[in-house]
Amino acid sequence: MEQKQLGRKGNVADVLVFTIYILVTAVGLILVGFFMTQFGEKLEGTPLQDTAVGNKSIAFINQIGDENIPKYFTILFIFDIIGIIGTSFLISLALPFFILYIIFIAFAVILAVFSMSFYDKFSEVSALQAYIADQTMINAIFQHAPLITLIVGVISAIIIMAKLPGGGQDI
Q1: Looking at the 3D structure of the chain, how many domains does it have?
Q2: What is the dihedral of CA 136, 141, 142, 143, to 10 degrees?
Q3: Handedness of CA 102, 106, 108, 109 (dihedral sign)
Q4: Which DSSP string do the residues of 5-57 spell out, in sequence order?
Q5: 167 belongs to a structural domain
Q6: Predicted structure pTM score
Q7: CA within 20 to 30 Å of 116's CA: 20, 28, 87, 137, which one?
Q8: 94 is in which domain, residue-wise?
Q9: Does a structural domain hold residue 34?
Q10: Would 62 be classed as within a structural domain?
Q11: Ranges 23-27, 39-43, 79-83, 165-169: which has the least confidence
Q12: CB of 84 within 8 A of CB of 152?
């Protein structure tokens, strides 16, 4: 039977991408949730609310803005961490390049500090303050962003160096 090599390889810069992705995703989902909440509130006094379907639609829009956005972010956050750890099994690095990976992790932690600072400034926007204050999971992740980035990077580094040399997987 013929053995095939998987064509996918992990990327050393995954931890850097993780930090940027989490910031962009959080800001994007907060804006979507905020606008959905505002849209739902504007629809509440309209004749659309008089019908059963309209009432359910308004409730659904409000639910997306109030309840589902933190769930979506948490799911994306967890799957991103799983993806980084999973692709760590596909990275094959020699020791000199592993030192470069450690430098990437350091840059990612510094970038996480900047993203935490950006998120703090973003949460001070007066129109968004009340909405962001309700996003406990997103707030907790950004309060600990450098530590989370460091932990994910270290776990990834351990996996990269602990596996057998040769990289990839044979099927």
Answers
A1: 1
A2: 80
A3: positive
A4: B-S----TTHHHHHHHHHHHHHHHHHHHHHHHHHHHHHHTTSGGGGSHHHHHH
A5: no
A6: 0.76
A7: 87
A8: 14-162
A9: yes
A10: yes
A11: 165-169
A12: yes
